[in-house]
UniProtKB/TrEMBL annotation:
SMART domains: FBG. InterPro entries: Fibrinogen-like_C, Fibrinogen_a/b/g_C_1, Fibrinogen_a/b/g_C_dom, Fibrinogen_C-term_domain, Fibrinogen_CS. This is Blast:Ficolin-1. Residues 211-425 form the Fibrinogen C-terminal domain. Residues 1-30 form the signal peptide. The keyword Disulfide bond applies. Residues 97-180 form a coiled coil.
Length: 458
């Protein structure tokens, strides 16, 4: 370590060297202008590389006398500088220069490293910028996708709400259906019980029908006074069902062939339907002309007709013969027999007449279709004194279209009517009221003339 005195000495020596430099011509030449530090470093570098530090020509050393100079600092102090001092001083400064050169070298290395690092940083910065740009583009894309996803999510949320509403409705319906199911189960049990009941009834009816079939009856005679629907089997004809009845006023074994009760069945029908029959066997119906033809031609039959007026009055008409012709014969009323009853012989004028419907005019009235005029179907002549297939009226009216049975041409409508037949051999006339029979010749004689009828109808 240097003492304060030595440092002061060195400063003094440096001052002496400075004086030498200033006084010795050519030792150091001042630069015309000040160089930048960088240039100075460069110069030093060049000098360091070219020339060894120990031999740098910093000062033009020329041989000098032992005593070079004396410097008077003040009146009492003089500094004397010898050659040896300068050599020492030179050595010191050369050593410092060498140190500075080494330091400069280190700094240059550091600078090179820093420059290299700077290049690397530029590359990294560019890559970072590129990546940033890519990221920005991707961010924009992702932002658009996110917006799209958000919209889809909203849409899905709305759908979810709709489905939730529907689900609630379905659940409500399901709850209602479950309630209904409970009541339906009870109803089903009830219906099952009914099915069992009707199965029993059906078996009974089937047994009855089989019994009827086995009996192979051609009439209602076997059933006597018991009312019921039974199977009739005629030779060469398909079996068919008919209502059978026994009447207190007419005896047992009657077959119902026509019935009017309440107007529930339309009787204004065509030829084909009157040929086959129609209606309900337990209500209003007509058995059919073909069956009547077959039955009344298989064996002699009698006809019984009962009437009920709206005032409750009952009456009947009985004919001891009743034969209907074939379809080719127009289902003609071929044989009527004698009348017996407490109403009137209103079918007499229709004896030997063909049957007529609105689409088959077989009546005697040339310029009129009596079936249309009377809104019915009957064995019309000029046109009719009876019209049991006419239009049903709910109360008694005087109408040519109504259901009437009159001795003369008046048309008071009836409340109910029933036509029945029975094989003649089973007649039980003892049950019938005794009334005066009306021979056909007398009826013909008392029948109105065509002129009278025309004056009535026209
Ligand atoms: Ca006619």
């Amino acid at each position: 370590m240097c003492t304060v005195r030595e440092v002061r000495l060195k400063m003094e020596n440096s001052l002496v060297l400075l004086l030498i430099v200033l006084t010795v011509p050519g030792s150091f030449q001042a630069s015309p202008k000040i160089k930048p530090t960088k240039d100075v470093i460069k110069d030093l570098k060049n000098k360091t590389e070219v020339v060894p530090a120990s031999s740098l020509p910093i000062v033009n050393v020329t041989p000098v006398p032992e005593k070079l100079a004396e410097v008077h600092i003040d009146q009492h102090k003089t500094i004397r500088i010898s050659k040896g001092d300068l050599d020492d001083l030179l050595d010191v400064y050369m050593g410092k220069i060498a140190e500075s050169a080494a330091t400069i070298k280190d700094k240059e290395n550091e600078i090179n490293k820093l420059q290299t690092k700077e290049h690397t940083d530029d590359d990294l910065l560019k890559r970072f910028e590129n990546l940033t740009e890519i990221c920005n583009v991707q961010n924009s894309t992702y932002a658009a996708k996110l917006t799209e996803k958000d919209e889809k999510i909203k849409e899905l949320e709305q759908k979810v709400k709709i489905y939730e509403t529907r689900l609630k409705r379905k659940q409500h319906v399901l709850t209602e259906l479950r309630k209904q199911n409970i009541s339906s189960t009870a109803l089903i049990d009830h219906l099952k019980a009914k099915v069992v009941y009707f199965e029993g009834k059906f078996r009974e009816k089937k047994d009855d029908l089989l019994a009827d079939w086995e009996a192979a009856t051609t009439s209602c005679i076997p059933f006597g006074m018991s009312p019921g629907i039974h199977l009739i089997h005629l030779p060469g004809f398909l079996p068919f069902l008919v209502p059978c009845e026994g009447l207190p006023s007419a005896g047992p074994g009657w077959m119902v062939i026509q019935r009017r009760l309440d107007g529930s069945v339309n009787f204004y029908r065509n030829w084909d339907q009157y040929s086959k029959g129609f209606g309900k066997l337990n209500g209003e119906f007509f058995i059919g002309l073909e069956k009547l033809h077959r039955m009344t031609n298989s064996q002699p039959h009698e006809l019984y007709i009962s009437f009920r007026r709206f005032n409750g009055e009952m009456s009947y008409a009985h004919y001891d013969d009743f034969v209907i012709g074939s379809e080719e014969e127009g289902y003609e009323l071929k044989l009527l027999g004698h009348y017996q009853g407490n109403s009137s012989d209103a079918l007499r004028t229709h004896d030997k007449m063909k049957f007529s419907t609105f689409d088959r005019d077989n009546d005697e009235f040339t310029h009129m279709n009596c079936a249309e005029y009377h809104h019915g179907a009957w064995w019309y002549d000029f046109c009719s004194r009876s019209n049991l297939n006419g239009k049903y009226f709910k109360s008694e009216v005087d109408n040519v279209q109504g259901i009437f049975w009159e001795p003369w041409y008046s048309f008071r409508s009836l409340k109910s009517v029933q036509m029945l037949i029975r094989p003649k051999s089973q007649r039980e006339l003892k049950d019938l009221p005794i009334t005066k029979r009306t021979p056909r010749a007398i009826l013909k004689r008392n029948s109105p003339s065509a002129q009278q009828i025309n004056s009535h109808y026209l």
